[in-house]
Each structure stands twice: as structure tokens, then as C-alpha cells.
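Work Package 4 report. The design task specified in the project plan requires that, given a folded chain encoded as C-alpha cells, an amino acid be chosen for each position. We show below one input record used in the internal validation round.
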């Protein structure tokens, strides 16, 4: 899914995007995690949790379309003001990543 960053800086706190997508730890002017949430929402879907993503990683050989995924994917889980949780499909790791990083998005049906 293609997406762009959301402005989650304090100066933008009255915007609908800020209130709907910046979560409990706003702060970045270019927040790609919030942008990923927005893109899924606009598609009538949602970001999966880190546990849901890791479950897919563990079973990825059962899914032809994702066996070649070799990058980190956003989850819906926040870690801090600057980081949210991801699953790195290349390494098979659950970890945190800067919300200013442009990572891949997989949306789940709501």
C-alpha cells in the first residue's frame, strides 16, 4: 500500500489527522507510522498488531504472495514517542523502529 507521512508535531495538534492517527506519543513532523495507519484506515482496513504480523512470518511458507517479503513491516503497536513496533521479515525479528522511517505496510481487514 502506498502512503505518505502524517504531521504529528505539536503545532498540528488540532488537525483531524493528528487526532486520528498520531496515537499516544505524538511528536514527529514526518510520522510514517501514522501515515501507514491512515492509509489502512482510508482503505477500510487496519494495521495488524505485532503478534499478528509475527504469526504471518512464522507461517509465511504457507502464503505464496509473502514468501519473498524481506523487509520490516509496521504494526499498530506503539513503543514510545519516537518508535513503534515492527516485524522484520528478513531477519524474523520483532523490534522497534523510528516512526520517521519509511517502512512497508500490510493492511488487515477490520
Amino acid at each position: 500500500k502506498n502512503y505518505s507521512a502524517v504531521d504529528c508535531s505539536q503545532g498540528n495538534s488540532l488537525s483531524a489527522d493528528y487526532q486520528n492517527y498520531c496515537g499516544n506519543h505524538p511528536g514527529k513532523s514526518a510520522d510514517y507510522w501514522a501515515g501507514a495507519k491512515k492509509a489502512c484506515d482510508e482503505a477500510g482496513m487496519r494495521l495488524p498488531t505485532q503478534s499478528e504480523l509475527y504469526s504471518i512470518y512464522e507461517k509465511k511458507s504457507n502464503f505464496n504472495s509473502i514468501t519473498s517479503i524481506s523487509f520490516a513491516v509496521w504494526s499498530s503497536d506503539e513503543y514510545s514517542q519516537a518508535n513503534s513496533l515492527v516485524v522484520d521479515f528478513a531477519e524474523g525479528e520483532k523490534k522497534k523502529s523510528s516512526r520517521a522511517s519509511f517502512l512497508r505496510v500490510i493492511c488487515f481487514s477490520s
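The chain has a mean pLDDT of 83. Validation will be extended to a larger panel in the next phase.
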